[in-house]
Amino acid sequence: MLLEVNQLHKSYHKRGKTVTAVDGVSFYLDGGQILGFLGPNGAGKTTTIKMIAGLIAPDAGDATIAGESVVHKGQRALRHVGAVLEGSRNLYWRLSPLENLEYWAGLRGVRKREARLRAKELLERFELTDKMNQTVQQLSRGMQQKVAICAALIHEPKLLLLDEPTLGLDVESSDRIQTLVQSLVREQKIGVVLTTHQMDVAETLSDRIAIIQTGTIVLEGLKREVLDRFTGNAYLVELGQRLEPQVRSRLEAEGVVFENERAFRIAVAVPEDLYVLLKAIEPAPVLRIERDAADLGRVFRHYTGGQENQAL
Ligand SMILES: Nc1ncnc2c1ncn2[C@@H]1O[C@H](COP(=O)(O)OP(=O)(O)OP(=O)(O)O)[C@@H](O)[C@H]1O
């Protein structure tokens, strides 16, 4: 197991008040996997990530990275971690990408010659070779974000913590970063904890999902299983012609929801019920039937108090 987060707790005390930010959070991650760590504002994501990164000491609980405890063997455990926590904060704007990477390599104890080699390799992988000697401030936001990720990878960590890696980027840069992160994970078997409010990004990248709400994990599991569970037996049916009004109202009474005159959605208890329903609409031709697949947005809203609660 690459990362085991075990019963982390953290409260903040401010002006006589106590805010419990993280209240018994546990999850795990294998190498070669991306965990989408999701939650609404103030749910406790950043606090959790900062405890894993050794930036905040937990009140209780621990995180183990590659078998080493962050609480008891901080330095050893944190050798395995790279983090891009807030935009491009880990970069010096007046230095070039290459200089930034060499600087971070130095801090991480990578020897000079090795550092230069790795920096160049990373910059090439992230398509920044022709920019490696410009100052970071001259680069686009997408490129700066790529440099920030390279800097976090310079000491070859096993675990990468990414906080909103594609926020505020144009579609092309966002897609590119997602592809690069994915290929890195597949090829080098590093594990990634990804926090994001962008559900499409989480859905594309994640192998596992954890949703946190007011400091507590409310859902954790494989993305595929989570989405399957929510997809259940809901179908979208498209018709070749509109239905007679009396047929339509009969269907509506049975829970069918019409999208428009020729398409409706229905959730059935067992798939066989769908055939009974289709019999009822004869002779109207059916053009298309598909499972009404859930997306992560729906799952997220379900667990965080949004509107779409009917899925389970
Ligand atoms: N330094 C601090 N002092 C006091 N309270 C804090 C501090 N940092 C966070 N909190 C509080 O702890 C709770 C969790 O905050 P945290 O930043 O971990 O949430 P988050 O899920 O990362 O939110 P966001 O999505 O908005 O970044 C919030 O109620 C927040 O106000």
UniProtKB/TrEMBL annotation:
ABC transporter domain segment(s): 3-239
Protein name: ABC transporter ATP-binding protein
UniProt GO molecular function: ATP binding; ATP hydrolysis activity
Family: Belongs to the ABC transporter superfamily.
Origin: domain of life: Bacteria
Keyword Cell inner membrane on entry: no
Entries under InterPro entries matching the protein: AAA+_ATPase (IPR003593), ABC_transporter-like_ATP-bd (IPR003439), ABC_transporter_ATP-binding (IPR050763), P-loop_NTPase (IPR027417)
Pfam families, per the entry: ABC_tran (PF00005)
Keywords from the named record: ATP-binding, Nucleotide-binding, Transport
